[in-house]
Structures are given as structure tokens and as C-alpha cells.
């Protein structure tokens, strides 16, 4: 299933390390696109150019404080993901809560990094999230699944996609679950040397449909395939720099 992207990953690895300034510009490009798209999926109205200037420390007129904080917080959360990868730290609930704390910092400090104590429903979704008293148990089950030998044998794309899908199905936090789940997906990919991916806002309907299928039918193939397509896009971006530097 993953032969195509495996071949591209091998080619990329064979050409590493990439030039320093190429890596820097790729990182900046993906940080911007990742931040813009993940926030846009959740309803943030900043354009990609407005997101860029917010990252540069400039306030955009006519936009809310929350929209500005969503950009800056996501940048900080990406930095935390990069730190985890660099230190080769194992995934833990503590890290998940810290990621979420960064996502909601200054937006909803009461619930930042804290599991929800209220029931929530997602409009348009058939799946009903677990009640608050079941969240800790479900998160423990998620971490137990993640630690299984069978899970560790999964291709990083499948493992990352399923981690994202199961986590967002639990919906352990009041807000910020989507952003946190996409950070977890990229954390899993980056640990295995894949570049971060961008779930594009224009693919939002297919993304939600595939997630709902995973949650209601325990059928993950559509979601894994969607993630695989985004992985290939990121690999192609990196490989295009190799051709130019050749």
C-alpha cells in the first residue's frame, strides 16, 4: 500500500542532509501552510498571507484576538513537536496535554491541557463522543493501543493516521482537539523521518467524511489513504529541491 511513498522516502534519505538554507526555507513554508490550513479547517478566517504577517508579529485589523492567538499558539506547539522529535521522547499523555495546553493558551486557560468535564457534540458528525467520565479510560486505552507491538509494526503513515483518528474520536478536550490531533499525526510521521504534512482546508469535507467513517464503522482505510496523499505531497516538495540542487 505504501510502496510509492516508501520509494520517495528512500530517495529523500539518500540525499540527506539537504542544504542548510533549503531546510530552513522548507521548514518555514510548511510551518506557515500547516498553521494556516489547520486553523482554517476549524473556522479561523485569517488568509494565508494574514497568517504569515501574524507569525511575523504584526496585528491584522478586523480580526479577533482569538484568531491571532490560534496562529501564535500553533507555532509554539509545532516547536514543541520538533523538540520531542529531536529528543526522541516517547509519546505520553503528559505530552498530549502539554500540546493541547499550548494550543489553547490565552484562549481558554481553564481548559487548556485539561480533559473535558462536559459532553460535546459535533454538528454534521454521526459519531457521538464518549461521556466525560469515560475519557480517562479511553485515553488509557489509546496509549495502551499505541504501545502494542502490533501497533509499532504498522507503517508510520497508518500508525499516525490511526492515532489521529482514535484521539479525535475520543475528543478528550472541550476545544482544540482537531489541531491537537493533527499535531500528533505529524509528530508520529516526523519521528520516522517523514516531513510534516498539511491537511489542506480544501480537503476538509473528505477529511471529515473519512474520520466519521473511521469512528462509526472502525474502517480506517479512507482516512489512511487521505493522509498518504498528503505525505506524498510533502515528499514531492522536498524531492523538488533535490532536483534543483542536483
Please describe what this structure looks like.
The chain is mostly helical and 246 residues long. The protein has one domain: Fido-like domain (Fic-like fold, Orthogonal Bundle), CATH 1.10.3290. Helices cover 66% and strands 0% of the residues. The chain is built from 11 helices and no strands. The protein has helices spanning 3-14, 20-41, 48-55, 65-87, 93-104, 135-147, 149-152, 156-170, 177-191, 204-217, 221-245. Helix 2 (20-41) packs across helix 4 (65-87), helix 4 (65-87) packs parallel to helix 9 (177-191) and helix 8 packs across helix 11 (221-245). The two termini are 30 Å apart.
The CATH architecture can be named as Orthogonal Bundle
Low-confidence blocks of residues: none
What's the SSE pattern?
HHHHHHHHHHH
Total beta strand runs? 0
State the shape: globular
Share of helix, binned: 55-70%
The major sheet is characterized as: none
CATH topology: Fic-like fold
Q: Characterize the quaternary organization of these chains.
A: single chain
The end-to-end span amounts to: 30 Å
Q: What percent strand? A: under 5%
Average per-residue pLDDT, rounded, comes to 95
CATH class: Mainly Alpha
Give me the Rg, rounded: 18 Å
Coarse structural class: mainly alpha
Q: Note the total helix count.
A: 11
Q: Mind telling me the CATH superfamily name?
A: Fido-like domain
User: How many domain modules?
Assistant: 1
Amino acid at each position: 500500500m505504501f510502496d510509492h511513498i516508501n520509494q520517495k522516502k528512500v530517495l529523500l534519505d539518500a540525499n540527506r542532509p539537504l542544504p542548510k538554507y533549503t531546510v530552513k526555507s522548507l521548514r518555514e513554508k510548511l510551518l506557515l501552510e500547516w498553521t494556516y490550513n489547520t486553523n482554517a479547517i476549524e473556522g479561523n478566517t485569517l488568509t494565508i498571507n494574514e497568517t504569515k504577517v501574524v507569525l511575523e508579529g504584526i496585528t491584522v485589523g478586523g480580526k479577533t484576538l482569538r484568531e491571532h492567538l490560534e496562529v501564535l499558539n500553533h507555532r509554539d506547539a509545532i516547536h514543541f513537536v520538533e523538540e520531542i522529535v529531536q529528543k526522541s521522547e516517547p509519546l505520553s499523555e503528559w505530552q498530549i496535554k502539554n500540546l493541547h495546553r499550548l494550543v489553547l493558551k490565552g484562549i481558554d486557560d481553564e481548559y487548556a491541557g485539561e480533559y473535558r468535564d462536559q459532553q460535546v457534540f459535533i454538528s454534521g458528525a454521526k459519531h457521538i463522543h464518549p461521556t466525560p467520565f469515560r475519557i480517562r479510560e479511553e485515553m488509557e486505552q489509546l496509549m495502551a493501543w499505541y504501545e502494542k507491538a502490533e501497533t509499532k509494526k504498522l507503517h508510520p503513515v497508518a500508525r499516525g493516521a490511526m492515532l489521529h483518528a482514535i484521539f479525535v474520536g475520543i475528543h478528550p478536550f472541550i476545544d482544540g482537539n482537531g489541531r491537537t490531533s493533527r499535531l500528533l499525526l505529524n509528530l508520529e510521521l516526523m519521528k520516522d523521518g517523514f516531513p510534516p504534512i498539511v491537511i489542506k482546508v480544501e480537503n476538509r469535507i473528505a477529511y471529515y467524511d473519512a474520520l466519521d467513517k473511521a469512528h462509526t464503522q472502525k474502517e480506517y482505510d479512507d482516512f489512511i489513504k487521505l493522509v498518504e496523499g498528503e505525505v506524498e505531497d510533502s515528499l514531492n516538495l522536498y524531492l523538488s529541491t533535490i532536483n534543483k540542487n542536483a
